[in-house]
Amino acid sequence: MSTTETACYSTPQEAGLRIETLSFERIPHQSRLFLDYLRDPVALGRYYPSAVRLHHELAARAPEVLAAHQTDRTHLCDALEAMNRAWGAGAETIANFTRLRSPRAVAVVSGQQVVLFTGTLYT
After folding, report:
1. How far apart, in Å, are the Cα atoms of 24 and each of 10, 12, 34, 112, 122?
2. d(Cα 90, Cα 93) in Å, to the nearest integer?
3. What angle do CA 82, 84, 89 make, to 5 degrees?
4. Under DSSP, is residue 2 helix (H, G, I), strand (E, B) or coil?
5. Are 93 and 117 spatial neighbours (Cβ–Cβ below 8 Å)?
6. pLDDT by residue (tens digit) across 44-72?
7. What is the pLDDT of residues 8-23, one digit of tens each?
8. Residues in CB range of 38: below 8 A, 6 or more apart
């Protein structure tokens, strides 16, 4: 389905790390909307009409996404490739830009917002 270049080639256990989890329900001051989304995102269709229950269900939405969003893929991929080459990205990363150039390709992009002194830096 997808190939990615990982930053770390060992599992946490192989690196000798102990893993513990903490449920968001146990962390004070979480919003009810956030906790409900974690439990059942589809039930919140009123707020998130495109939500899916399982990640593999996203592929069925590709035609809808492609019809609604268009960009100059050549310009986008040229810029991404140039930046990644400058940062020393590996061959597998660079090869993925060829895949992204396809008019049938869909990418899920996520990230974190930069914060400064516990508040957002950009809004």
Report:
1. 27, 21, 9, 17, 25
2. 5
3. 135
4. coil
5. no
6. 999 988 888 888 888 888 999 899 988 99
7. 556 777 777 788 888 9
8. 24
